[in-house]
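A quick aside before the break. I want you to see a complete sequence-to-structure record at least once, exactly as it would be stored in a machine-readable document. Don't worry about memorizing anything.
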Amino acid sequence: MDSIQTITDINQRPDLRTFHPDALPWPSKLDPAEHAFCSRVCGFPTIRMNESRAYWGKELAQLADIERHVSICLGLISGFASDSGLLGGVPMMNAMLRFAAEEYQHANMFYRYVELLIGQPLDLSGESLEHRLGLFLGPESPGAKLVALLASAYPGETVITLFEHRVRLFDPTQRHFATRMLVAHGLDEARHIQFDHYVLGQLAPSLDDGEWADARRLCRNMEAANHALAERYEARMRQILPCEFVEGNTAARIQRHFSQKLLRETLAGRTFRLADQALSSQDRALVMDFTGRASIHPGGGSTWH
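That is the input. The structure line, written in tokens, reads:
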């Protein structure tokens, strides 16, 4: 299947599988049942609500920050796509700009939920946004930049998909707002994962050696920037809600395990391995125990579309 047809298939009628944040039934405040549910997802006793508020708040605020950064960078890369034989054409432009627009909405949704969780806004992007954007303003090719951007985001997108599966397991009728929010997010995220798989699996091998080296360097620099961002959000959250929210947290343990594993795997070699293909038998057992599912992405992510 040629690239144009593949990218078109990924974005076939995305308007039927998306969800605007304003369509969610936003509460004026979160009730005790919502806080107890968030605690259960973490594996905490329901009385440890501050710990779960801190964990969810830190992670979603950080994720909102990263999603907004991805949106801006996709816009920057798309501005040079017409000069790239790899990224040129209307289908690819449509895919990148739709991805960017949806990431903005995800950032909006998570920022709003964090304020409900912790009682105040939490946005630390201004401290590092210029540096993180600057990574994608250099002379590297648009193809190298796109591969690096998606490769740096892929571990986080895979982990949030694990969390969507977990809330579905615990709340199959979607009574809780957190479940509705993550399910709504997952409508777009499934398509973003398919786009990642297509770009990293089909387009990345077309980069020449210099572009590949640029993509790996940009990706590692972006991972370092995201790590520093995570540390800032954790430090700020410990000021807002002074409690230990990582130790004894099943969700944090799973997140750390799969994030680190996928960071090691992504762009480790010229052949990209999908998240599910990189799992050991022990990893698969962790996925099953955490989500009740045999794989992270539908069908193990074994197809490109």
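Two observations worth writing down. Residues 301-305 have pLDDT under 50 and may be disordered. The domain at 29-294 is CATH 1.20.1260 (Ferritin). We'll return to this after the break.
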